[in-house]
Amino acid sequence: MRLSEATWTDVSDLAGETDIAYLPVGSTEQHGPHAPLGTDAFTAEAVADAGAEAYDGEVVVAPTLPVGVAAEHRQFPGTLWLSPDTFRDTVRETATSLASHGFDRVVVVNGHGGNVDALREVTGTMTREDDVYAVAFTWFEAVGDYGSEMGHGGKLETALLRRVAPELVRDDRIEEARDGGSPRWGDWNAGVNLAHDSAEFTENGVVGDPSTGTAEVGEELLELAAASLARLTSAVAERDVSRPDRRE
Amino acid sequence: MRLSEATWTDVSDLAGETDIAYLPVGSTEQHGPHAPLGTDAFTAEAVADAGAEAYDGEVVVAPTLPVGVAAEHRQFPGTLWLSPDTFRDTVRETATSLASHGFDRVVVVNGHGGNVDALREVTGTMTREDDVYAVAFTWFEAVGDYGSEMGHGGKLETALLRRVAPELVRDDRIEEARDGGSPRWGDWNAGVNLAHDSAEFTENGVVGDPSTGTAEVGEELLELAAASLARLTSAVAERDVSRPDRRE
Amino acid sequence: MRLSEATWTDVSDLAGETDIAYLPVGSTEQHGPHAPLGTDAFTAEAVADAGAEAYDGEVVVAPTLPVGVAAEHRQFPGTLWLSPDTFRDTVRETATSLASHGFDRVVVVNGHGGNVDALREVTGTMTREDDVYAVAFTWFEAVGDYGSEMGHGGKLETALLRRVAPELVRDDRIEEARDGGSPRWGDWNAGVNLAHDSAEFTENGVVGDPSTGTAEVGEELLELAAASLARLTSAVAERDVSRPDRRE
Amino acid sequence: MRLSEATWTDVSDLAGETDIAYLPVGSTEQHGPHAPLGTDAFTAEAVADAGAEAYDGEVVVAPTLPVGVAAEHRQFPGTLWLSPDTFRDTVRETATSLASHGFDRVVVVNGHGGNVDALREVTGTMTREDDVYAVAFTWFEAVGDYGSEMGHGGKLETALLRRVAPELVRDDRIEEARDGGSPRWGDWNAGVNLAHDSAEFTENGVVGDPSTGTAEVGEELLELAAASLARLTSAVAERDVSRPDRRE
Amino acid sequence: MRLSEATWTDVSDLAGETDIAYLPVGSTEQHGPHAPLGTDAFTAEAVADAGAEAYDGEVVVAPTLPVGVAAEHRQFPGTLWLSPDTFRDTVRETATSLASHGFDRVVVVNGHGGNVDALREVTGTMTREDDVYAVAFTWFEAVGDYGSEMGHGGKLETALLRRVAPELVRDDRIEEARDGGSPRWGDWNAGVNLAHDSAEFTENGVVGDPSTGTAEVGEELLELAAASLARLTSAVAERDVSRPDRRE
Amino acid sequence: MRLSEATWTDVSDLAGETDIAYLPVGSTEQHGPHAPLGTDAFTAEAVADAGAEAYDGEVVVAPTLPVGVAAEHRQFPGTLWLSPDTFRDTVRETATSLASHGFDRVVVVNGHGGNVDALREVTGTMTREDDVYAVAFTWFEAVGDYGSEMGHGGKLETALLRRVAPELVRDDRIEEARDGGSPRWGDWNAGVNLAHDSAEFTENGVVGDPSTGTAEVGEELLELAAASLARLTSAVAERDVSRPDRRE
Fold first, then answer.
1. What pTM was computed for the model?
2. Using alpha carbons only, how large is chain C's radius of gyration in Å?
3. In a 3-state reduction of DSSP, which class is residue C239?
4. If 0-12 CB within 10 Å is exposed, 13-18 middle and 19+ buried, where does residue B172 land?
5. Which of the four, A95, A186, B117, D94, has the lowest number of CB atoms within 10 Å?
6. Residue B24: beta bridge partners?
7. Is residue C248 domain-resident?
8. For range B96-123, the mean pLDDT
């Protein structure tokens, strides 16, 4: 059930049937010359919807939070970003709102790499301190071998966009996107990424090769991600989420 | 230009053409048994799009923030809310992101009464302390005489929904919505609203009569709101937004 | 009972007799060339005292907080201001102190328009989260038809000052005050005040016509405000202030 | 010049004449059965006024902040307290307001022992980080040998009250106050006060002997405090308040 | 140069010679029945010292921060933890102190996995907002193939302890440590760790096999880590750390 | 028991035996040309260890926090400092971690004058709001008559260093240290220290005469401090630390 489209009485009728909610979170940030700024929100939302469909049970899907932790892309026009603190507060307060209505097992469905650290932190904090159990699922970490090909505006994101919002991929700029990008995220030495901004290592914002991101790959990615999310949801539904006892 | 759908290169091409951005903000909260929880986000976004269309010039329309200041509705299932502090931080950081790219005259386009105080505060704070000029426009305060008929899930919101998302209005619950609602927002004495929660004065969350909210009224509301927003945008574009000199 | 003048044993003796406290809040800010910077504190305190007198029961009157939310007047020499956050924290902590002693129905008695939004927010927050019920009463919103004549350092405030602190009104500057002022608060377009600072629309800080603010009007205003406050106090004393049940 | 009673034009006329402001801060807290809760505010204000009078030059005296850091007295009815953070923020924002108008050498005139630590911290922070130089003067630390007789509601405060607000001292409870009090503040071991609340060591809130606090002593205390404050003001006016150079 | 052991004049003499500082950060948390709570601080400090030795140039080594982000181990007696916010603030203020003295390229030398996310965030924030460039080096991510064998209190940490603080390894509990531990960190499903506390997946706090952590391995680890850190330090020293230009 | 060197099972075994913990806190700041920046941490740790030894009972000694409130020394190279807020948060979270394991009577063992105010505040706050009783012991306030000779890098600190870390005292700079120092801390007028930075009153950072700080004096100081701390610990162990009842 998409929360935004439901009435409060619909939600009330659902009470007792499920305690699972999805909270999709994206980002509004550069994705190269060929892919829209809203890529991470579009993909997160699509995966959440597909996961809810794939899951054998009812799930409340909250509205997608469109702005995330993206200061690293701020040199590129149009990028929006929250401080990590504000992002965490937004996720935490939204998730605890959901929990107050009985949906106290929350899976954050994430579409942006820059959100990962903050989400790991805030889901841990919530689980320990609030009346909610929360985990964060990032779709491109759950698509099997494809995971290793994740870049930025590269194969995976371009492919998934072709599946969920094909009109927003600029076909005529794919080659330019590929040629002006970088093969790798970051600038590494001794296990440390020396770059704090993507503009330090990619000229046009792209990492990877978007030309390989076909609609077929996109279809497959959505299926893989939805299946993973559904499987995770079952695990979350069945898990004992009480905190462990102190060791003596 | 809808920011989410543009690429960073599109935004770059726009540089110099405009310094105006809209930031739509809604809420996810009960709107009676007949109207969806996302009402305020849907209407804010529709008004922002229509205003951008009506304005004689270019405007960047940021993605809609779907969660607002709505603790007053928290007794109704499905309502989500941010603390006013987090809401202000979110608006401020998003608006200053826009300003960093040259869109430093920001009109927040608001669809929710509960956001009004926080938006007045944060747009003032931003204008004084950051490199941005910001004001908040609330559509139902700019639709002429209709303004006086604003309730909650009542005539105005139901009408506008019939225009922008008709499939989400539950026709079969309109009468129930009207009959179980309240004629007035709040519980007043000596100029003071004694109620801090809507559940103190409305049984089903409705204030006003949704049955009078026809698609025709909705059409008119959207036109009035868009025209007001376009007019405001012109005024914002032309205004001297430097801060006044100290009086001596 | 004025708290500042009472001993703790006096307060202890009052225990059980009343659970009502008033917390007067003002501002120290420009009020034109003829009226003192402390106007809002003087008037709030006077109204609180008069209301306590008019109310048929006992009330604890806390000391007046003299600095409020007034950054909008900061271009005028002598204006002091708190950030809205600090103002809210001050009000909240003072009110919860009162509640800890059994005075857990707190009426904030306000003399300054710039405080209104912050007070609405913080009284709501306190009522929901702390062991206290709080509302904010702003005297010039409860003086009947006079309310529409409220400006800034205009008829109403000048009149009330003539009643409560006549020696502080500069008679010889009343005409100058009137002539250099503005007829209206703000600079409006499409329901939006484009001005964030009073210096954007008033040369000398005045809004309205102070020359019509006679001592007779002041007398009447104090009576009206006190009667309103007393009536409100009765309503607060009798109200069921428990939070509503969740809707199912 | 008392800021609350001045108009902004009066303050403007003062520009250039002085850069000194006093900010009186008190507390609203138990002072035994014989002395009012507002003791620290009354005395701080009186000392500030007397110091301004004694100083050979002009001083702007801000309104008195009536609530301070007093959680240690919260077991006694009527005591109000701010968290140290809120207290510091209030002092800092008020003082920087003063500085924005040219009064950028601020002497906080303090009447409450519980404020001392927080004031030392915040005046240091302001001096380092804001465009203001600030120090905190606590009157009972600047009255010569009398200083050693400071208790709580004891000789010194009772005496000064008899001088500045005699009608608020309850003569008929002086003996009771003395007999039910404590000879010493705190409960000490190895240089550490083990008590965090005054109720841990005084039954009725008094420390010291109020019966020795005559009006004559009060007169002398006010003169001593005013002379000290005036002397300090001269030193502040003449001091090089720029921050030292880094050592190389 | 170990900062704690130097005098300010020693540091002054170093000015101009280097702009590199190390800031070791550890944690005080359970490391199984055989390894001390201070393991992460001891190892971080040892690696920092060894790296400074290996680096061909001068480095200032700040004192080791002994408490980190470790709430996930709080069910085990003796574990200390800071909130991630306080940990970030501590690191940021310490690093900007270093930068104020000219050591404005700071390498945080980290010994604890739970600190990694917070350090990545805060070094990014500092680099963008403060006058400092900072990165975080975590020793067990820079020891070649050994990295894959990192557990908790397992082979790597036990080995390095045997090298740097052998007297603190309890030989007689190594078998018990191994047998009561877990082979893997976390409880994974679809790329998500469902466990937020280590007590959810390890009985005695150990992950991995400490019995394989010999002193020889420890020696090798220290050399590998020191070499990596020295190499990183050279890269940091030579890097253009100015922020990239905005893309147009 | 030194917490850093213990395993969690050691700590578990101690459960029930003691509820006392020491938390040593120092500072990393200039101590003149002859004494190391880490002086306050070294001395605090030594006193904590000696106190634990002297106390007739078991005590858990937490790791030493090496950075404190020291902005007043920031003009001297190498000085590190936390904001008072971050310092308080660090102490509070560390102490409440200790309390969560049953060590809920915490004595902060302090070696730095600049920490004193912040520690008094935070131990009070913790005792009132958290499940812990805390006090702060500053060693040089508990060494009898020696206390009056405390300066900065002067007799007392130099002496104690000679006892606990003699290799870190630069003998060849003692005379220079003495001659370039100041006889007194601060710049006083009317009971107020007009200086906010030590560089306002001492050229080389020293206050007092380090040449009188012999190892014999150091020995005596350590014994006096340890005896005081042990005595305090007994008092803390036996004290009724419940908060007092409200006065009626």
1. 0.98
2. 18
3. coil
4. exposed
5. A186
6. B109
7. no
8. 98
D120-123: which pairs have CB atoms within 8 A and are 24 or more residues apart? Answer: D120/F117, D121/D88, D121/F84, D121/F117, D121/F118, D122/D88, D122/D91, D122/D92, D123/F196
User: What is the CB-side half-sphere exposure of residue E59 using CA atoms within 13 A?
Assistant: 29
H, E, C per residue of chain F: CEHHHCCHHHHHHHCCCCCEEEEEECCCCCECCCECCCHHHHHHHHHHHHHHHHCCCCCEECCCECCCCCHHHCCCCCCCCCCHHHHHHHHHHHHHHHHHCCCCEEEEEECCHHHHHHHHHHHHHHHHHCCCEEEEEEHHHCCHHHHHHCCECCHHHHHHHHHHCHHHCCHHHHHHHHHCCECCCCCEECCEECCCCHHHCCCCCCECCHHHCCHHHHHHHHHHHHHHHHHHHHHHHHCCCCCCCCCC
Q: Where are the alpha helices (DSSP H) in chain A?
A: 8-14, 39-54, 84-100, 116-129, 155-164, 174-179, 215-238
Which residue in the block uniquely carries the two structure tokens 């035994």?
Answer: D32
Using the beta-carbon criterion (under 8 Å), do F89 and E89 form an inter-chain contact? Answer: yes
Beta-carbon neighbour count of residue D147 at 10 Å?
15
Instruction: Mention every residue, 6+ apart, whose C-beta is less than 8 A from residue F193.
Output: D135, F186, F187
Q: Establish if E154 touches chain F: CB-CB under 8 angstroms.
A: no
* Residue indicated by tokens 């950028």: D104
Instruction: Report CA-CA distances (Å) from B12 to A30, A35, A41, C159, F206.
Output: 11, 14, 21, 57, 58
Domain containing C37 — which CATH number? 3.40.50.10310
Query: Is F4 in contact with E28 (Cβ distance < 8 A)?
Result: yes
Q: What does the DSSP assignment read for A137-149?
A: EEGGGSSGGGGGG
Tell me, yes or no, whether C247 lies in a domain. no
Chain C, 197-226: which have a CB under 8 Å from a chain D CB? Answer: 204-205
Rounded Cα distance between B227 and C1, Å, is 55
Minimum Cα–Cα distance from A13: chain C residue: C248
Strand pairing category for E20-25 and E105-110: parallel
Nearest to E232 among A120, A137, A189 (CB): A189
CA–CA gap between residue F45 and residue B121 (Å, rounded)? 49
* Greatest pairwise CA separation for chain C in angstroms: 65
Other beta carbons less than 10 A from residue F158's beta carbon: 30
Q: Tell me whether residue B248 is in a domain.
A: no
Section A119-138 average pLDDT: 98
Quick check: C85 and C47 in contact, CB under 8 A?
no
- Asked whether the beta carbons of residue D89 and residue C100 sit closer than 8 angstroms, the reply is no
Pairing of strands A133-138, A105-110: parallel
The total domain count for chain B is 1
* pLDDT tens digits for range B9-33: 999 999 889 999 999 999 999 999 9
pLDDT, one tens digit per residue, over A16-51 is 899 999 999 999 999 999 999 999 999 999 999 999
Domain assignment of residue C132, given as a range: 3-238
B90 to A90: CB separation less than 8 angstroms, yes or no? yes
Spell E57-75 as b/e; 16+ CB within 10 A means b: eebbbbbbbbbbbbbbbbb
Please answer whether residues F139 and F111 qualify as being in contact, where contact means their C-beta atoms are separated by less than 8 angstroms: yes
Q: Is residue E89 part of a domain?
A: yes
CA distances (Å), origin A238, targets A231, A234, A242? 11, 6, 12
The greatest distance separating any two alpha carbons of chain A, rounded to the nearest whole angstrom, comes to 65
Q: Chain C closest CA to F248's CA: distance in Å?
A: 6
Q: Are E63 and E238 in contact (CB under 8 A)?
A: no
**Residue B35: strand pairing partners:** B31
Question: Could E77 and F36 be called an inter-chain contact, meaning their C-beta atoms sit closer than 8 Å?
Answer: no
pLDDT at E15: 80
* pLDDT, tens digit (0-9, with 9 covering 90-100), for F6-58: 999 999 999 889 999 999 999 999 999 999 999 999 999 999 999 999 999 99
> Which segments of chain D does DSSP mark as H helices, in order?
8-14, 39-54, 84-100, 116-129, 155-164, 174-179, 215-238
The mean of the pLDDT values for chain E is: 97
